[in-house]
Each structure stands twice: as C-alpha cells, then as structure tokens.
C-alpha cells in the first residue's frame, strides 16, 4: 500500500523538488502544504506549483487542489500558524510520513525581521509536532540547517559536535527545532530526523540566495556584492543530491538511539567546500559573461565557511552526493536562461 506523505513548504525550492521526486514513484500519496508567502516573488512559487500540475486559479485557502498531472498529488494552501486547520488536515489524511520543509528561510532577513522566524519556525514547528502527537505518524523528517554550527571552528562540521553558538536568529530557530524534536521524541516517542542542509543550489532556486542574486546581476552587467572580500567557502550541495538524501531518510525510520529515543540528526551536504571566488568564476563561465565585483566586509549573521561531515548519513542510507560544482551550476544556468528569458 502506498504511504501518505505530507510535504510542507511544497511551493518552496527544496519542497518542489522533493514532491517532484516523490510523485515519480507509485509508492506515495502526497499532500503538499504551503502558505505561498511573499518573502520572495510569489510568481516563482506559483510556477513551481504549475509544474506540479496545480493551477493557481484553483487554489483556495484551506482546501485541497488536485494535480492535473498526477492523481497522487494534492496541494493545500495553509499557514502553519493555523493550528486548527492543520490539526484537521492531519485527522482527515492520516499521514504516514511528514517531510517538514516550510520555514522562514534566510540568514540576513532574520536580523531585521525576527518575528517572522519565531512565528513560522518555532510556533509553526510546534503545531506540526502537536499534530504528530495527536495523530501519530511513522516518521517526521524536518529541515534544520548548517547554520546551527554558527561560530564553531572545528571542521568538517560533525553532528557529534556540540553546537550552541548560533550567529543569527534563523540559526537559533533551527537549533530550537532540534531541541523541540528531541523533547517530543522523548516524551511522546515521535520518531524524528533533523536534516542539516548545506547551501542548496540548482534549478528553481531561491531568488534571495547567492547563485540567483549573482546570475541576475551578471546577466544585467551589474557588479555583484562579494562579502568578506571573497574569503568565504560554502559546501554548495546540488538540489538533486539533497532530495535523494531527504527521500532516503524518510524511509529510514529511526530506531531508538543509545538514550532510548527515536531521535536523529544528519548533515546533508556535499562534503566538498568551494571557495566563493571559484563559484563565481564557474557561474560567470556558464553564463558566458564578464563578472564585475564589489568587495564588501563580512555581513552580520554570516559565517566564513561550511563543510559537512556526511559519514553518518552515508552509513545509514548510503548517501553519496554525485554532482560536482561545474555540472550543478551548468544545470542551474540552463534553467535560469530558460525561465528568465
Ligand atoms: P523556500 O523559502 O523556497 O521554501 C520554504 C517554503 O515554506 C516557502 O514556499 C514558504 O512560502 C513556506 N512557508 C514559510 N512559512 C510558512 C508558514 N508559516 N506556513 C506555511 N508555509 C510556509 O526555502 P527552501 O530553500 O526550499 O528551504 C526549505 C527548508 O530547508 C527550510 O526549512 C530552510 O530553512 C531549510 N534550509 C534550506 C537551505 C538552502 O540552502 N536552501 C539550507 C539550509 C536549510
């Protein structure tokens, strides 16, 4: 029998790719949920939904809209703050798995907009946990972030490292999610897996993140802002590799750990950090354009480098990122040129 899966944040970048992969398999009956907020242009979110067969004209708040392309996918526009509707959805659907990706994302935006992060990432996540408590699921997999490593110096970042120095409120909410999941795993035996994603890029990506911001500026002949004078590196991870990890993890329901809890955290990264200047060079080449740069100081909330130790995910699900930076950027640029032509 197919598994019923809720994917929150389904109109978002990673949510869209996750749903795309799940609907390719007859093993799943999927409900996507998203409030389609305007943190970045809603048109991109509606275009993603269209690509999944959900026409924007038929979306009604709180009501399921079926996909024209796949009868195993429904979409529902809902805010995580709406606990009553969320609980009713869990009651009527009886989910087996929840892949929770909805969140207020973005490190820099969190400095001036803290409330959005508390509402979506802390209060919203608590509503998901409560719904899983009331209508038990086999597994809740949720997005955490490499940003939880904050000011940690020891690299590569390992899930065994103690992390208690977030550099932004965004990171603090993601660390809070891990702590909240721990409590619910402990008190109510809800099986949870936290996924610390490392700088995800690829087609249908986020307009607030460097690859898209840079591509737009380069295509317009504008200079790009390069922070910390370019002395930064990121463990850029191609979205298909991330989604393979997410889909593998959701099937791997955690057994009780050494403390008797069905609770687990993984890094999902590329484990191969790239210098920002190298990334810009590869992007400029793929776009076939000259790149002009404004060198700027380090931004508040940012960290200098990220680097994932992925050994634990490799051990449990055989996770192996396959996409090098040239191939991934090439795929991104091909999509970008088509989408914004
Ligand atoms: P995204 O912003 O594209 O997607 C998040 C989606 O959640 C959006 O479509 C938004 O409308 C929805 N959302 C936000 N608040 C909501 C609410 N209160 N109720 C319902 N829907 C809501 O971001 P993404 O890049 O796809 O990220 C997915 C998850 O992965 C997020 O939790 C993010 O914090 C995490 N993450 C992403 C990256 C990355 O590099 N993209 C890195 C680390 C962690």
TrEMBL record:
It comes from the Bacteria. Pfam families: Epimerase. It comes from Marinoscillum furvescens DSM 4134. Residues 5-269 form the NAD-dependent epimerase/dehydratase domain. The keyword NAD applies. Gene3D superfamilies: NAD(P)-binding Rossmann-like Domain, UDP-galactose 4-epimerase, domain 1. Keywords: NAD. This is UDP-glucuronate 4-epimerase.
């Amino acid at each position: 029998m197919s598994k019923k899966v809720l994917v929150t944040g389904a109109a978002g970048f990673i949510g869209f790719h996750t749903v795309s992969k799940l609907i390719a398999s007859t093993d799943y009956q999927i409900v996507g949920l998203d409030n389609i907020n305007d943190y970045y242009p809603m048109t991109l979110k509606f275009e993603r939904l269209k690509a999944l067969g959900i026409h924007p004209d038929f979306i009604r708040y709180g009501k399921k809209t079926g996909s024209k392309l796949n009868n195993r996918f429904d979409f529902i526009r809902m805010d995580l703050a709406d606990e009553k509707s969320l609980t009713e959805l869990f009651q009527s659907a009886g989910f087996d798995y929840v892949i929770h990706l909805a969140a207020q994302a973005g490190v820099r935006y969190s400095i001036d907009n803290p409330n959005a992060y508390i509402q979506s990432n802390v209060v919203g996540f608590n509503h998901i946990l409560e719904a899983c408590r009331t209508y038990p699921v086999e597994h809740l997999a949720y997005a955490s972030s490499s940003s939880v490593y904050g000011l940690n110096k020891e690299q590569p970042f390992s899930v065994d490292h103690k992390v208690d120095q977030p550099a932004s409120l965004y990171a603090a909410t993601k660390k809070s999610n891990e702590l909240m999941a721990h409590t619910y795993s402990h008190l109510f035996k809800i099986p949870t897996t936290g996924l610390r994603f490392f700088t995800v890029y690829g087609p249908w990506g986020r307009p607030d993140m460097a690859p898209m911001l840079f591509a737009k500026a380069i295509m317009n002949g504008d200079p790009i802002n390069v922070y910390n004078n370019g002395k930064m590196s990121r463990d850029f991870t191609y979205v298909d590799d991330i989604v393979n990890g997410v889909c593998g993890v959701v099937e791997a329901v955690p057994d009780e750990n050494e403390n008797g809890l069905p609770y687990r955290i993984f890094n999902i990264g590329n484990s191969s950090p790239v210098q920002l200047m190298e990334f810009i060079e590869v992007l400029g080449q793929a776009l076939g354009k000259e790149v002009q740069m404004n060198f700027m100081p380090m931004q508040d909330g940012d960290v200098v480098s990220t680097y994932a130790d992925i050994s634990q995910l490799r051990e449990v699900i055989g996770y192996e990122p396959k996409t090098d930076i040239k191939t991934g950027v090439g795929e991104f640029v091909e999509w970008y040129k088509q989408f914004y032509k």
